[in-house]
Amino acid sequence: MSQVKNGDTVKVHYTGTLADGTVFDSSLEREPLEFTLGEGQLIPGFEKTVLGMSAGESRTVTIPAQEAYGPYREEMVLEVPRTQLPADMQPQVGMQLHVGEEQGEGMVVQITTVSDSHITLDANHPLAGKDLTFNIQLQ
């Protein structure tokens, strides 16, 4: 059986869990995930795990935060006055917003707190700062 290498397009089924066993994502109830190794489509630790696998092989690996979504960065948490929101908006904790930047690109942020005068926006990826465990099966 040949082992996958950079440039190969592969399909995998996976289940991702947090340290407490909570499943945060799984492909088992849908089509396998298809991607090309080495194109940076996935977190680095996931690609590194698949590299060298053979069809039908399974691996379970814990990927440290640095090789997943990076560290949680406090500087990516912003408190903004509610007056900066559209007047008809009713912000709620957990709501996601798309915030524009000067170059026309934007980012998704999540509302983490709401008060009468301010809201707190978190631009960190929801899995930033977390070690992630994946069970991966190469199809």
Notes on the protein architecture:
The protein is mainly beta and 139 residues long. It folds into two domains: 9-70 and 127-138, Chitinase A, domain 3; 74-122, Thrombin, subunit H, CATH 2.40.10.330. It has one helix and nine strands, in the order βββαββββββ. The protein has one helix spanning 44-50, and strands spanning 9-17, 23-26, 33-36, 58-63, 77-81, 96-100, 106-114, 118-122, 132-138. The strands form two sheets. Strands 1, 2, 3, 4 and 9 form a five-stranded antiparallel β-sheet that branches. Strands 5-8-7-6 form a four-stranded antiparallel β-sheet, with no helix packed on it. The protein is elongated and about 60 Å long. The model has no long low-confidence stretch (mean pLDDT 94).
Mean pLDDT: 94
> What is the number of E strands?
9
For the record, give the distance between the C-alpha atoms at the N and C termini, rounded to a whole number. 13 Å
CATH architectural arrangement of the largest domain: Roll
Number of domains: 2
- The first-level CATH class of the largest domain is given as Alpha Beta
Identify low-pLDDT runs. Answer: none
Q: Look up the CATH topology of the largest domain.
A: Chitinase A, domain 3
Query: In percent terms, what proportion of residues is strand?
Result: 35-45%
**Sheet/helix structural class:** mainly beta
**What is the H-and-E element order?**
EEEHEEEEEE
What would you call the shape?
elongated
Alpha plus pi helix count? 1
- Rounded Rg: 19 Å
The major β-sheet equals: 5 strands, antiparallel
Range of helix content = under 10%
